[in-house]
Design goal:
About 80% of the residues lie in helices and about 0% in strands. By secondary structure, it is mainly α. It has one domain (about 5-15, about 20-200). Helix 3 crosses helix 7 (about 120-135), helix 3 (about 35-60) packs antiparallel against helix 8 and helix 5 (about 70-90) packs antiparallel against helix 10.
Length: about 200
């Protein structure tokens, strides 16, 4: 493994983080509605689970899913149901009055872990990227280093986003357009959940 491999991986990771998906949408929603600390906490939860998926991909977990398709189906179905549940809750409360009030960060951290834990496509995506970028003869130490690098990049990304989006101007703009933003986000999350549910 060389520094070029690591740079290529980090570029691919940043592109994946910035693309619209459940993790990004929920982290933005959490930051805007419950404050900077909760936004950073959910980012840490998302990052920790994503990094662990990367480590399991490096250690060959995707082979387990290939050998036991039912395990993949169970995790995928649970993840889809969880996303649909979040979407329904977001839609239901879209018209509720909201204020930017701090909430216990531990709840957001657990939610971040659950979102990426129940998304088995994370490990398949990680495996695909890792196979293309990294050599096949990596040691266990190098695999752990890649996992820690992944965790660092995710935490920097989500914490930076939480800091930027928790400003008064951004929060005020969200509160003014809350019903529309929540309904669009709920629709996207619901569609992602349905796609995950029916996809093979």
């Amino acid at each position: 493994m060389t520094i070029e491999h690591l740079i290529a991986f980090n570029l691919a990771l940043f592109a994946a983080l910035a693309s619209p998906g459940p993790a990004l949408l929920v982290s933005i929603k959490t930051t805007l509605t419950t404050g900077r600390n909760a936004g950073m906490a959910i980012g840490c939860g998302l990052g920790l689970m994503a990094a662990l998926w990367t480590l399991t991909a490096l250690l060959g977990l995707e082979v387990v899913f290939e050998l036991f398709p039912w395990a993949y189906v169970i995790v995928k179905t649970a993840g889809a149901i969880y996303l649909i549940y979040i979407a329904c809750s977001m839609w239901k409360h879209a018209r509720d009055q909201a204020e930017s009030i701090e909430q216990p960060a531990r709840h957001a951290f657990r939610q971040g872990i659950m979102i990426n834990l129940l998304n088995p496509k994370s490990v398949l995506f990680a495996a695909a990227v890792l196979v293309v970028i990294f050599p096949s003869d990596m040691t266990t130490g190098q695999s752990v280093f890649v996992m820690l690098n992944h965790l660092f990049v995710e935490i920097v990304f989500y914490c930076g986003m939480a800091l930027g989006m928790s400003t008064k101007a951004v929060s005020a703009a969200y509160l003014r357009a809350k019903v529309y933003i929540d309904r669009v986000s709920a629709g996207v999350l619901g569609l992602l959940g349905m796609k995950l549910l029916i996809s093979r």
